[in-house]
Design goal:
Layout (H helix, E strand, L loop, with lengths): L2 E11 L2 E6 L1 H4 L3 E2 L1 E6 L6 H8 L7 E6 L2 E2 L2 H4 E5 L10 H9 L5 H13 L15 H14 L4 E5 L7 H17 L2 E5 L12 E6 L2 E4 L13 H12 L1
Parallel strand pairs: 4-9, 4-10, 7-8, 8-9
Antiparallel strand pairs: 1-2, 1-3, 1-5, 5-6, 10-11
C-alpha cells in the first residue's frame, strides 16, 4: 500500500507558518485511498495541496512516497477550482495536457464511459472558451482520470458539477481507490464524499489531526449530520 509520509514538514506562505507535519512524531500520513481534509477557511488546506504539488516550496522538511522523496512534476497531479482555463484549446487537448499523454484511440477508449457519464459526447472538439464552467470542470476530471500519476491532489473538485456529474466523479474516485492511488481531497460537499473516505483529517493548532483521534467511530460510518456536529464541536 502506497503511503505519503511527512518529515519535519513545515507548510505556509511567506512570513506565515500554517502547518507543521511529521509522520514519526505525530503518526499522520496519507495512505492509498481517499484522504479527505476538513477545516475552516484559512487553515492551510489549499497551501498544503499546493506544496505537495510543487506549486509552493515547503518552508522546511520533506515528504516522501514509500520512503523516496516525492518528485511533484512526476508523482503528483493538482486539480483546483483556481486553475485558469485557456480558452482557445479544445477539450481533447486539455485532457492531453492534464493526462500527459496524446489523444488517440487508447485514451478515447479509456474515456468512453466517462464522457457519456459527464454528458460530454459532443464537446470533445469544442474550445474550452465555448464551454460552461461546469463543463470545463468535467473535462478536467476526464484528464485527471487518465493520469498515471500516483498522487492526486483535488481542491474543491465537485464545485460546479450537477447531480449526475457528481455521481460520475464519485465513480472515478472509487476506481482510483481500487487502483491504490493516494487521493488527497478538499471539499465543502462532504455529504458526497464522506462515505468514500478512507481517512479524514482536521486541522487545528497548525497540525493535521486524524479524525480517529477525535472520534472512535470511522467518519465514513457516521451520518453526515452527526459528522458535521462533531466537527463543529471540535472547532468550538
Amino acid at each position: 500500500m502506497k503511503t505519503l509520509s511527512f518529515h519535519d514538514l513545515k507548510v505556509g506562505r511567506p512570513n506565515q507558518n500554517l502547518l507543521n507535519m511529521d509522520t514519526a512524531s505525530q503518526g499522520i500520513s496519507f495512505q492509498a485511498g481517499l484522504n479527505l481534509i476538513v477545516a475552516p477557511n484559512g487553515y492551510g488546506k489549499t497551501t498544503l495541496l499546493q506544496t505537495l504539488a510543487g506549486v509552493l516550496k515547503p518552508q522546511s522538511g520533506a515528504f516522501k512516497i514509500d520512503d523516496r522523496t516525492v518528485r511533484p512534476e512526476e508523482d503528483a497531479l493538482y486539480v483546483s477550482e483556481y486553475l485558469s482555463f485557456p480558452k482557445f484549446i479544445k477539450s481533447s487537448e486539455w485532457i492531453e495536457f492534464i493526462a500527459d499523454q496524446p489523444w488517440g484511440s487508447a485514451i478515447e477508449g479509456q474515456l468512453q464511459v466517462k464522457v457519456k457519464g459527464f454528458r460530454l459526447e459532443d464537446k470533445m472538439q469544442n474550445f474550452l472558451g465555448r464551454l460552461s464552467q461546469g463543463e470545463r470542470r468535467k473535462v478536467t476530471w476526464l484528464g485527471a482520470f487518465c493520469s498515471k500519476k500516483p498522487i492526486l491532489l483535488l481542491d474543491e473538485p465537485l464545485d460546479g458539477l450537477d447531480l449526475l456529474s457528481i455521481e460520475c466523479a464519485r465513480q472515478i474516485l472509487r476506481e482510483w481507490k481500487a487502483q491504490g492511488k493516494i487521493v488527497c481531497l478538499i471539499a465543502h460537499q462532504i455529504s458526497e464524499l464522506l462515505d468514500l473516505s478512507d481517512q479524514v483529517f482536521l486541522i487545528k493548532d497548525q497540525k493535521l489531526i486524524d479524525w480517529k483521534t477525535v472520534n472512535p467511530t470511522a467518519a465514513s460510518q457516521l451520518p453526515v449530520e452527526k459528522f458535521r456536529t462533531s466537527v463543529l464541536e471540535f472547532y468550538g
